[in-house]
Amino acid sequence: MTLWQNVQTAAGMPGSFHWLVVGFILAVALLSYLRPAERLRMRNSVILFGLAFVCLFAAGAISFSSSQAAGTVYLTLRGAGLFVETVAIINVASVFVFAVLLRWVHLEPPQIAQDLLLALGYLIIAIIILSRSGVDLRGIVATSAVITAVIGFSLQDTLGNIMGGMALQMERTIRVGDWIRIDDLEGRVKEIRWRQTSVETRNWDTIVIPNSQLMKGKVTLLGRRSAAPVQHRQWVYFAVDLSHSPTKVIGTVETALRAEPIPCVAATPEIHCLVTDYKNGDATYAVRYWLTDLSQPDPTDSLIRTRVYVALRRADIPLSIPTQSILLERESPDERRHSEDMEHRIGALSKVELFSPLTADEKQELASAMINAPFAKGEALTRQGAEAHWLYIIRQGEVKVRVAVEGVNQDVASLGPGDYFGEMGMMTGQPRASSVIATTDVKCYRLGKEAFQAILQRRPELVEDLSRTLAVRRVELEAVRDEASEEAIRERLRKTQGVVLRRIREFFALKQ
């Protein structure tokens, strides 16, 4: 017999061992392609198969010798080669079953269950090979029972951890990816192994917890409830002086927070604002919301606080500050800052063509009536179809103008510092023709109808100039969109001015 024939005979596959080698290599290549995450395991299986081939090759070479010692070595090498070869094949088969076949039918057994099945397979193969090699297994079983008792007594803690890991994975009480709290520790379960569970915290740390501790202690599963999405309740606190009605504060905050979707905040249950305490002349409030991404509590809390701050600023409701700071401010009023603010307001009004017919005193009057209206990134300054009787002048930041056409939102323009919008709503009461969304943090001046009413009551003749300015602005926008001729533009301007003039008079209850 040739050496190769002896190798095949040692492998127990005379005449067909080479097909096993080819099939093994093809299976490894295919599984490595289908499951890249298992490539390390495939590489280890190839190494084991190579080691088995070396043992079988050595056994085939030794089989040429007829000595008794050579026979013993042959049996040892052959048994080792067959065992290692079978282990490699079982490893490849397990990847096919657990990582391909069962996932294809949407089943994923716990990792420990997979390890137990593999260990059982290894044990069965070892028993079969030893039995065929003529080894007396009864003595091994008796000896192993004594050894097992000694090991079990000396490794109670380790075995407890192993049994805990098995229970965790079999019962799926805690799963990989869950967020848990143990005492003052919060983190996401990264891995559940035989002895310990690895938990990654938000501080970029990894905590290793013995499985027995998880089984004995109290563990809170954050954000998990039966038949419900993963979300965790968060609280954000702030304080406002008692001179402001809690009803107004709660309404202002809830309206602002519910107006636009906030990243990582659940739509259901809704965001709520509650009064939680009264202390030192202040009312303490809490915003209660449900966090959908448990890795982002701090950034989401920050975003909620920003929205609360700008909403209260728009409503002219300041957050509470220490009493001594208030007394200091009252004793030292900053008149220069107030004067500079008025100059900025008048300058902003002067850039608005609509207000060009006004006198300096009238602009001063409007400037005093304007309020600061900050908005956070992502908030809607106004919505298409809403009835809002005020005009915005952008001081800082950028916004996008969005129009909904047949249910599809389209961004049609961008506005920045010095731009204004909402003039038709303030002057005619017409619903908003578009939505305006803050693309950055935005600071605006907001001017309401009431401030303009007094001026028009004193000087009703301003209506002619105002209506013409509004009509020109609208017709110019329509002309760019429709590519109208000059004659058509003039005719459209005449008709539009008449309509706008009538609406202004009706809206402000002016005499014809």
Describe this structure in words.
- The chain is of the alpha+beta class and 512 residues long.
- The protein has four domains: 3-135; 174-222, SH3 type barrels (Roll); 232-328, Alpha-Beta Plaits, CATH 3.30.70; 346-507, Sandwich (Jelly Rolls).
- It is built from 17 helices and 16 strands.
- It has helices spanning 3-10, 17-34, 39-62, 68-104, 111-132, 137-154, 156-171, 211-216, 246-259, 297-314, 323-331, 335-350, 360-369, 423-428, 449-458, 462-482, 486-507; strands at residues 179-182, 185-192, 196-200, 206-210, 220-222, 232-241, 272-279, 282-291, 371-375, 380-382, 390-396, 399-405, 408-415, 420-421, 435-438, 442-448.
- The strands form four sheets. The chain has a five-stranded antiparallel beta sheet with strand order 4-3-2-1-5. Strands 9-16-11-14 form a four-stranded antiparallel beta sheet. A four-stranded antiparallel beta sheet has the order 10-15-12-13, with no helix packed on it.
- α2 (17-34) runs parallel beside α4 (68-104) and α16 (462-482) packs across α17.
